[in-house]
Amino acid sequence: MLLDLLLRLELMPTVCQFSFDLSVDRWLTCVYGPQGNNNKIIFLQELRDIRAACQGPWVILGDFNLIYKDEDKNNSNLNRAMMGRFRRLINDLSLKEIPLHGRKFTWSNLQDSPTLVKLDRVLCSVDWEQLFLDCLLQSAASEDSDHCPLILGLTDRKAGKPRFHFEPFWSKQDDFQGVVETGWNSISAVSCPFETLSRKFRATAKGLQSWSQNKIGHVNSQLGLARKILHMLEIAQDNRELSPSERWLYNQLKKHSLALSSLQRTIARCRSQINWLSDGDANTALFHLHARHRKNKNFIAQLIQGDQVITDHDGKAAATYNFYNDLIGTSVDRNWTINLDELNITAHELGQLDAPFSEDEVWSTIRQLPSNKAPGPDGFTG
To answer: Is residue 143 located within the same domain as residue 35?
Structure first.
């Protein structure tokens, strides 16, 4: 409720600046934008000066008294020159707006035919977003204010069960074939071949996950630890000569870090589903941003059922099930039927649609699948 508190203060400076005593500076700027156009120009320049002095993860939030899109206001009375200045500020400082769930506008003049504007927002830098991947911005009831309170939660998304992803680099490991063979043969055949296939896939996936945790481990944690030890050795090297064992460890960690970095980039590329970059591109941050954009786009923050707003995971699941269950309904016996023969519709021979798939058709379809993408929920790639 920090933003709601700031909006209720009558006397408040244009900008409040905070930092945190952590290993990396993380900056929070709370703003209350001025009214006049001249003051707004000064206000935007002040934000540029603050960003120049505060390097690192940065989040800026509050009542900007500015908009940068037509959709931020419910009428055509727009100051496009000021909108352009605000848009240039966002682009020049490489800021990203955290999407607001639940409301389109945040301010109302409370008239019978109200003017509605989105004056309150939360902007952040890319490195701040990477620190708080599960942040969620929601709205609350305005009560006695003409502004809509905004609630920024940093860990407001319930983590789901980790989905199995087949990693392309697994097949290059020496004992990969043995792990697959063991998992596949651990399941006996049942009467239904499709059930047998499904069980074999699940057993193979479980075996590969266990093998990957023991053989490869958590790549990001290993890379972070390797870099930390490398940094400590480099600091020691500034003051004294490294011993032979320390020099050996330093060289080994250098090679290990390069291998882990390459592995991390490969995993990020597969998660991002980017197909238009060549294999030589190494912008891991771009892959992570693309994957996170898809995750945020697919995330449903809330559902509205009648006059009830549902935000918890179990409630959203129940509401979704009930909606489609009611939509489909139940089958009932019909009192009347249609005699299609009386319509004189030309008949077509469609018996081939019921014919079983040939082996050539199956293999032709499999060969057309993208080699490094998982087309189904089982997580296996083509």
So the answer is: yes
